[in-house]
Each structure stands twice: as C-alpha cells, then as structure tokens.
Amino acid sequence: MSTARLWWLLQQRSRREKSAATRFTGVLAVIAFAATSAVALVVVGGLQAFIRRGADPTLLPSDPGVGGFYVILAWIAVFLLLVPLSTLGAAAARLAMARRDERLAALRLVGATRTQVGALTLADAGLQAGLGAVLGIVGYLAALPALSLLSFEGRALSVAELWVGLPLLLATIAAVVAVALISALSSLQRVSITPLGVAARASMPLLSAFRLVVLGLVSIGGVVAFNVLGSVAGMIGIVIAAGFVALGLATMNLIGPFVLQLVGRITAALARRPETLLAGRRLAADPKAAWRSVGGVGLAAFIAGVVSLVGMFAEDPASGSSDQLLVTDLVTGGLLTLVIAGVLAAVSTGVMQAGRLIDQRQEYRNLVLAGAEVRMLSRARTRETVIPLVAALGTATGSVLIVVVPMIGMSAYLNPAVLMNYALSVLGVAAVVMVGAWASGFVARGLTADLRG
Amino acid sequence: MNTNQIPTAVPPAPPAPPSAILQARALTKTYGQSSIQTLALDGVDLSIQAGESLAIMGPSGSGKTTLLHLLSGVLEPTAGSVTWCGKDLQSLKDAERTRLRRSDFGFVFQSGQLLPELPAEENAALPLMLGGMPRAQAVTAAREQLRKLGLAGLEARRPGEMSGGQAQRVAIARALVGQPGVIFADEPTGALDHATGWDVMRVLHDSAAATGAALVVVTHNPEVAHWCSRTVSMADGRVVAMATQKPAVAQPTAAVLR
Fold first, then answer.
1. Do A278 and B101 touch (CB under 8 A)?
2. pLDDT of residue A108
3. Based on the structure, what is the number of domains in chain A?
4. pTM
5. B-contacting residues of A 223-282, CB under 8 Å?
6. Range A41-58 burial, b when 16+ CB lie within 10 A, else e
7. CB distance B165 to B198 below 8 Å
C-alpha cells in the first residue's frame, strides 16, 4: 500500500475512533496555526502600510521626518511580536505532533518503514498547519474592516493599505506549513536518535544570577547615557529614546525567566495548598516556557505603560498638530500591540497547557485515580497561568516606573486618566489570557472521561 | 474481551468471612454504547481480608485492571456491588469516592505516577496535602516514610534525578504515607529490570505487612504473584481459578522473574 493510501485510510478510520481529548488537541493546533497566521498578516499589513506612507511624500504630515519615525515604530512593534508569534507557531507545531507516538510505534511494529512513518507524520502536521493558515487568512480578512477604523497620522488606515496581496497570503500558508514540517521533522529526529529522550524529563538547570548583573549594568549604562545624550533633540533624540526602549525590552527578555523562576521558587516555598505547590514547582522547573507564554504580554504592557504616560503630555486633541498626532498614535499603537500580544499569549497559554497535559497524561490520570480532585488540578493550572502573568505584568509595570520616573517624575503616576487607561488595558489582556488557560480544561476533562463510567 | 460463556472451576462465593474488609459481589462491567457492548467483567465474587495479599493474574484483556478499578471505586459497576468496610461504594457520590481513594486506599502503578516537577518528599506528601493536612506535617510524614524505604538523603531529588527503582520506592512511600487499608498495585514491576523488580516487590510486600494494609497486585508475572498469599486467575472477565500459597521470601531466579 502506498504511503498516501495508508494516510488516507488512517484518516478515515481514526475519525470515528478519536477521543474527545485527541479531537480537541487537533482543533487547538489548528486554532494556534490560525492565530499565528492571522496575527502575522495583520502585523505585516500594518508594517507595509506605514512603509508605503513613509515612501509617499504626498501623504506625509507637516514634518517629513515623522513618516520615517512611524516606520521605525512599526518595526519595533514587529520585533516585539516576533518572539511570541514564533513561539506560538512552534507550540502549534509541537501540538500537531502530540499523541502520535503510539500510532507511529504501532505502524513501525507492523512493518511500516521509517520513511513511511515520517511521511505520515509530516502529512498530518502539514494538513493541520495548512488548514490553520487558511483559517488565519479568513480571520485576517474578517479583521480588516475593524482595523480600518484605526487612525494613524491623522487619517484612518484603509483596507487597501492593510491588504498584503495574494503573493504574501500564499507565502504565509507556505511559511506556516514549513514551520510545522520543520518542527515535525525535528521531533522525528529526536525520537530516532534517542527514543527515551522524549519521555525522560531531565531537570532543568537553575538560571544564573548573572542575568541580574546584566540588568544592573544596563540600568547604570542607561542612566549615564540618558544624562549625556538627553539634550539631543529632534529625530536623533527620538531614535536614541527608541534605542533605550529596545534595550529595556532586551533586558526584560533576559531577566524575565529569571524573575519567573524566583517567583516560582518563592511560591513553592510558601505554598500551603497542593495546587499552589504544583503551580510554583512547575514555574520554577521551566520558567523559560512560562516566559514564552506571557513574556510577550509583559513586553507589550511595558510599551503600553510608557506610551500611556507619554499620552499625558498630549495637547488638545482637536489641535491636530503633528506632535499631538504623534503622541496619540503612540498611545494607539502601544495599546494595539498590547492587544495583539494578549491574543497571542492567550492562544499560546492554551496550546502550551494542552501540550503539557498530553505529555503528562499518564501522571494526570494516575493522580485522579489516586484520589486527586479534577477541580484541584484545574485550580493548579489556573495558578500556573496567573502567577507568571502577574509576575510579567508586575515586572513590566515596575520597569515602566524605573524607565519613566527619572524622565518625568512621580507626578505622572498620580494622573487618574493615565492610571485608569493602563490598568484597564492590562486587566483586559489578563482576562483574555485566562480564557486561553480555561480552554485547556477541555483536554484535561477528555483525559479522564473514561474513569467515570 | 468477548462475551462467550466460559466454564469456571470456581464454586459460588461463600458468605464473606467476618474479617473481609473489601468485598465484591456479582461484579459485572460492560463498556461501550448499547449497539456495541464489550463485557469486561462477568459476575465476579471476591473478598479480601485485612492484611491479606492478593495477586490478580491473567492475560491481557482478561479484566484484571477493570476489576482493580471497580474494587477501588474508580469505575462504577454495571451490575453487582463493592463494599469497603461494610460501605457500598455505589451508594457514595463521586466526590465521596474520590475522598475515600485518597484516605483509605494507596496506589502504585507501572509508570507515570510521580510528578516530574516535585521532589521526592513532596511527591510522597501529596496525598496527605490533598486530604487537607498542613504541608509541614505532610512533608515530615513523607520523609519518615521515605527513610523507612531506604531513601534517606534523596528527599529533595526530583524523579528525573532518580533510578527507576528509586522512583518506584517513592511511589510506594506515597501509597503508604496515608496509612491506607488497601494498597492497589497495577503491574508495579512492569517497567523494571529483574533485580529491581524483585526489590520493589519485597519493599511493597514488607511495607504492607508492617502497616497491616491489604495488598492487591495486578500482574501477568507468576513470580510477582508469588509474593502474595492468594492468587486469583482471570480469563474473559471471570475468575477461573483461585489458589493460596506461602508468600515468597527468598530471592527468585532471574529467569523466573522475567
């Protein structure tokens, strides 16, 4: 039987046999691919719109340098979203591979060649990625009318400006499928090199406190540089300020996992309830994974915090001056980045928790068999999300304070409008992320559904 | 599992002796929808005395694990009943059965029973914490249990940092820490080499005997069954033979342990 016929046969047969957990796993992988594609297209569309505006002298506002600055800001937003976006893409690919090990092993036992098994795996992962990418394109097209309500540089973004064109749509499908295939290949390679390597969960080494030293050096360097270069005005000054922000973001990425590990260890040490203990230990055991889920939100919250404060200095919105437009656009862009990062983090959290549940399904089932309440395990998962989320948002808020206070003083934080704006944005995004964690409960229920009959 | 009627050598179950703590009567379990049903267990009678060790043997699909899940209140029978210390498990709500499994029963599985993120002492303390015991007290009790099982000094190690035998001892400590009335072990040596498997069975047998807990071991390995005072053989969802024996105390040969 050819590999294609074998794959088709398995698809037909497995449709009836799939458990709720397996089905939901597939659905979640497709959703993750769809979110990755849709967000990538929105981000690329936005970047392209600003590049087009920047290149067209007839569209520029009064100050010709400002158009270029918008392009720089758009690139910063793209870089900011690149890590959570690629993380989600990779997580989706891993999820697409989940729960295939038993079937692949069975096929190998009955004589399927390694090439055949590899081809079947790639076909499965590629199909889910392709379907997700197509759905993502539909999502992008559906979002265009809403995005065209956003106004930058004094006029609304048109659908035509945000339209990325057919070649980029096709390239997106190809890229998403390629990410899935590369991840699938890498998983196959791991299994083939060391079959036990996948199951064995070696303890992760503790992160080095050297990260804190880097943070200290960057902070001191930042203050010195700010004092030396603070008097530079105009575009150069703005670019230098943007450089500081980029450096701050890089530093946050460096210390974020370290902070989460510390938070996890403290949480575990102080835990009185088993669900808190589990959440703390899991966070301490793999802080990088937790940071990959919520770090994007932390970084975007940092940006949103800075631009919310910048918004304080806005003049009368009706004045329409280029400075006023820039400030308003900075706030809009910062909050938009936060919303996008929130959506990515929500899907990422759901996908990663579902993936871990599937990886640890035997442990999870055995805990339930031995008398652990499913509700307690759900609470543990919720805390696994809440704790790093609060830590990331707290770190971001703290970083905003550290960065902005030297520039404009404490008075900024006493402005109720600024506080309200920032708090509502952060709480809204946190709520979206919690929805992602809640969604993984479907997988958890599916894993123990047969134990109640 | 098929639904063929198999002649059985087992006579009708006599009334349970007064010391029976766990008793199954006419236990039947079917899986699946109304159109396609599979009979997994077919009218099994069984009683287990306090402190007794019982091996449930049989080929794959004979209903061993289903029987263990019914005896421990994980599954509800389609017909028949399970009573624990005179209490009908079916009369309990799901949450009450969950609490009962936590407080009165201990579980040892073949694999995948320890949480990789937790150190040994917290893995072992988990049932007590789930039952509401303060963490410090639960960890102290777990450390003591680990010490008794020869794991002193390894309390802070995580499962990934231990050998298979050590991890299985931690699982036994976890099963024992709540001082259960019965320990249910499902293929406890299935993932271990001969010597380690023998050692684990010795620890399991001796620990259960020391605490007075009954031991119910599901296995397809006759040498593992020799650690128990009684062996029940199953086929096609029925008990087809029952034998009592003197539990093993000496090291069996590697060949038979296989």
1. no
2. 65
3. 2
4. 0.72
5. 271-274, 277-278, 281-282
6. bbbbbbbbbbbebbeeee
7. no
Question: What is the span of the domain harbouring residue A250?
Answer: 204-453
Counting one residue from chain A and one from chain B, the pairs whose CB atoms sit within 8 A come to 89
Q: Residue A12 domain-assigned?
A: no
Residues in chain A closer than 8 A to B75 (CB atoms): 451-453
Measure the CA–CA gap between A64 and B131, rounded to whole angstroms.
Answer: 69
Among chain A residues, the shortest Cα distance to B111 is held by A362
The answer to whether position A123 is within a domain reads yes
Q: Do B130 and A282 touch (CB under 8 A)?
A: no
Contact residues on chain B for A278, CB-CB shorter than 8 A: 115, 117-118
Q: What is the dihedral of CA A81, A41, A93, A206, to 10 degrees?
A: 0
Q: Provide CB contacts within 8 A for B183, sequence distance 6+.
A: B105, B106, B107, B108, B175, B176, B204, B208, B213, B214, B215, B216
Q: What is the mean pLDDT of each run of 10 residues along chain A (453 residues)?
A: 65 56 73 88 89 71 64 78 74 68 63 73 84 94 91 85 91 87 69 36 54 67 62 58 66 81 92 91 86 78 74 57 73 82 83 78 81 85 87 81 66 70 83 84 76 59
- A317 shares its domain with A402: yes
Contact A281 B117 (CB under 8 A): yes
The bridge status of strand B87-88 relative to strand B53-57 is unpaired
pLDDT at A25: 72
Task: Rounding to the nearest 10 degrees, give the CA dihedral for residues A181, A182, A186, A188.
Answer: 20
Same domain? A196 vs A270: no
Residue with tokens 């150190």: B119
Residue A13 lies in a domain: no
Half-sphere exposure of A391 (CA within 13 A, CB side): 29
Residues A161 and A290 in one domain: no
Where does a domain end: A181, A202, A223? A202
Which residue stretches of chain B are H helix? 64-71, 94-104, 120-130, 135-148, 164-176, 194-211, 222-225, 254-257
Confidence class for position B253, pLDDT limits 50, 70, 90: very low
The shortest C-alpha distance from A374 to chain B (Å) reads: 10
The encoded tokens of residue A32 equal 């993750």
Backbone region of residue B184 per phi and psi (left: phi > 0; alpha: psi in -120 to 50; beta: other values) = beta
- Cβ pair A294, A389 in contact under 8 A: yes
Q: Could you write out the DSSP letters of every residue in A134-150?
A: HHHHHHHHHHHHHHTT-
A371:B126 CB<8 A: no
Q: What is the pLDDT of residues B116-171, one digit of tens each?
A: 889 999 999 998 998 889 999 999 999 999 998 889 999 999 988 898 889 989 99
Averaged pLDDT of chain B: 84
Choose the closest CB to A274 out of B98, B100, B129: B129
Q: Kindly determine whether residue A277 and residue B129, on different chains, have CB atoms separated by under 8 Å.
A: yes
Asked if pLDDT for residue B64 goes beyond 70, the answer is yes
Phi, psi of B104 (to 5 degrees): -105, -20
At the topology level, CATH places domain B20-257 in Rossmann fold (3.40.50)
Report how far residue A340's alpha carbon sits from residue A342's, in angstroms, rounded to the nearest whole number.
Answer: 5
Taking the C-alpha atoms of residue A184 and residue A83, their distance in angstroms, rounded to an integer, is: 20
CB-CB under 8 Å, B75 with A285: no
Classify residue A369: in a domain, yes or no: yes
Shortest distance between the Cα of B230 and any Cα of chain A, in A, equals 24
Same domain, A117 and A189: yes
Q: Which residues contact B230 (CB under 8 A, 6 or more apart)?
A: B52, B53, B54, B55, B242, B243, B244, B245
Please give the Cα distance from A196 to B111 (Å, whole number): 14
Q: Tell me the backbone φ, ψ of residue B114, rounded to 5 degrees.
A: -100, 140
Q: Which residues on A lie below 8 Å from B76 (Cβ)?
A: 452-453
Domain residue ranges of chain B, discontinuous segments joined by +: 20-257
Each residue's pLDDT tens digit, B33-43: 767 788 899 99
- ipTM (interface pTM): 0.76
